[in-house]
Design goal:
392 residues; Amidase signature (AS) enzymes; 10-stranded mixed beta sheet; 36% helix
């Protein structure tokens, strides 16, 4: 294993669900032989309940009859599963806090949140407890924790990885993603999970310059510094065509519609006890109206047209996934609201357009936030290959 920060204390940093440490051995040999991984507790493991970060959900669940397809593929490739990791309740958060099970500790910045909702998976990798980990990403739930914990993280193109055996949230936007401490492992996992078709190589990298207008000065500086090292191509703009606020609002409406369709009946029947902030979010999602959805679809269509122009299959775009380098564990409500307003819009671009997005890892001696690269739908393997060749 090649950990970012090996943990010798016996602590799991709150990364795993209660009772969530166990082994499922992988096949002998294979491209991921001798690699250990963990899986977010939205992903089925045969013989274990999927609790989705909520004790009432857990109590109502039956043990999964089989592994989720994504887990089976990794086991077949030789990787060994070491357990199930904590998630924010039903994946409805970018923070990494769970009122029932606690807040995992960010190994790199103990005074900062790990990011969510794939909090436990990110923390397990950052603590050196496993070589890689599975998360889910609907609106940033892999990309934000990767950024906050200094990891490589990948959200694949929509529909590129089967969601069988994964608790739905907003299915049209749901993906299974993964974390690793460095690009070689991130890419190796992608070569196992992603479709084998060979997309054209990426030959152009361009900074989304107006993505820097809504972020902190230090984050903008981090993005510009990365762009100066990666590319000499001219920058582009997105938000002169579709505003960041409209992108964010449209995402929240379409996410809510997906939640209502996928989870509304279950929530009404189970009446699970959610933490206060999560309960409020679900209440709002379940009351979404058709007019808001229709308006959101128009925004999404405009964004898709713009991104198709800016990001053909041979191009990747640089942009941040967070308006600030990290969130303090004791973040005040006003700061949290500002974070969500901007982060949801930045992360919604990939979701609205079905695009893959890769959060680059942070160098071990740095305190900055690394940039992400977003590519055209289906360019996943090309994006991983491009990122693995970039200067550290």
């Amino acid at each position: 294993m090649s950990p970012l920060a090996t943990d010798d204390s016996g602590s799991d940093h709150g990364a795993f669900v209660p009772g969530g440490r166990f082994l499922v051995e992988g096949a002998n040999g294979g491209p991921l032989a001798n690699k250990r991984f963990a899986a977010k507790d939205l992903i089925d493991i045969a013989g274990h309940k999927t609790g989705s970060g909520n004790p009432d959900w857990l109590a109502a669940a039956a043990p999964a009859p089989r592994h989720a397809e994504v887990v089976s593929r990794l086991l077949h490739a030789g990787a060994t599963l070491i357990g199930k990791t904590l998630t924010d309740e039903l994946a409805f958060s970018l923070e990494g806090r769970n009122d029932h099970y606690g807040t995992p500790v960010n190994p790199r910045y103990p005074d900062a949140l790990s990011g969510g909702s794939s909090s436990g998976s990110a923390v397990a990798v950052a603590a050196g407890l496993c070589d890689f980990a599975l998360g889910t990403d609907t609106g940033g739930s892999v990309r934000v924790p990767a950024a906050f914990c200094g990891l490589a993280g990948f959200r694949p193109s929509s529909g590129s990885i089967a969601m069988d055996g994964v608790t739905p949230f907003a299915p049209e936007y749901d993906t299974v993603g993964w974390f690793a401490p460095e690009m070689d492992t991130l890419k190796a996992v992608g070569e196992v999970l992603l479709p084998t078709r060979a997309p054209p190589p990426i030959s152009s990298i361009r900074l989304v310059s107006d993505s820097l207008d809504s972020v902190d000065d230090d984050v903008a500086s981090d993005m510009m510094h990365a762009a100066s090292r990666f590319t000499a191509d001219a920058p582009v703009q997105i938000f002169d065509h579709v505003s960041l606020e409209d992108i964010s609002s449209a995402y929240q409406s379409l996410q809510a519609a997906g939640i209502k369709s996928a989870l509304g009946n279950i929530i009404t029947r189970l009446r699970p006890r959610f933490g206060a902030s999560i309960a409020e979010r679900f209440s709002g999602a379940l009351s979404i109206d058709d007019a808001a959805v229709a308006s959101a679809l128009q925004v999404r269509d405009r964004l898709r047209e713009r991104m198709a122009e800016l990001c053909p299959p041979t191009t990747a775009l640089i942009l941040p996934v967070s308006p600030q380098r990290r969130l303090p564990r004791k973040v005040v409500p006003s700061s949290l609201a500002k974070f969500y307003r901007i982060a949801l819009g930045l992360n919604a671009i990939a979701g609205h357009c079905g695009m893959p997005q890769l959060q680059l890892p942070m160098a071990a001696d740095k305190t900055d936030i690394a940039p992400s690269l977003i590519g055209a739908p289906g360019s996943d393997l090309a994006l991983l290959s491009c990122a693995s060749r970039l200067p550290a």
